[in-house]
Amino acid sequence: MPRLSLIIASTRPQRIGHQVAQWVLDAVPAGFTVTVHDLREIALPFLDEPGQPADGNYAHEHTRRWSAAIQATDALVLVMPEYNRGYNASLKNAIDYLYAEWEGLPVGCVGYGWHGASYAKSALRQTLERVKMTVVDGPGLEFGKTLTQEGEVSASATDDAALATMFAELLAKAR
């Protein structure tokens, strides 16, 4: 059975990422084994490896644990906020820690924020493609329409369909 990892990208104290993640988790179809990785709990320091990630020679135990977690997945879902039309620094840091582990990994991005996190998802796509991930489209929840600022999800049928399509593509492309 393919292994799906879901990463909660927000690390803010007053975040709603875990609520959006629960909406995503409730829709995961049969056929995946799921593991949740919360970047707030993982608490990677700002990139502190002395070598290049492409070398794969990690000096720190936190990097080796992060590497092992990503190597143990066949598909990935990023639940990520949009901050100032971009994606958050903790997500960029987590991506930059690794390199070879990302190659060929199918990833879907579920964004949330104003305008459905469209700016952040667009910016993130460039980074994910640079590390050779296989990006599939995912939904974006929009404050005032499908998401409250307190994290209550009232997704539309379009969002639900986009989520189902994302999972179908991830399942088909799982490594």
TrEMBL record:
Residue span, NADPH-dependent FMN reductase-like domain: 3-140
By its UniProt entry, which InterPro entries does this protein fall under? Flavoprotein-like_sf, FMN_Rdtase-like_dom, NAD(P)H-dep_reductase
Provide any one GO MF term from the record: oxidoreductase activity
Q: Which residues form the signal peptide?
A: none
Specify the superkingdom: Bacteria
Query: GO CC terms for this protein?
Result: cytosol
Q: What protein am I looking at?
A: NAD(P)H-dependent oxidoreductase
Organism encoding this protein: Pedococcus bigeumensis
Q: Name one Pfam family in it.
A: FMN_red
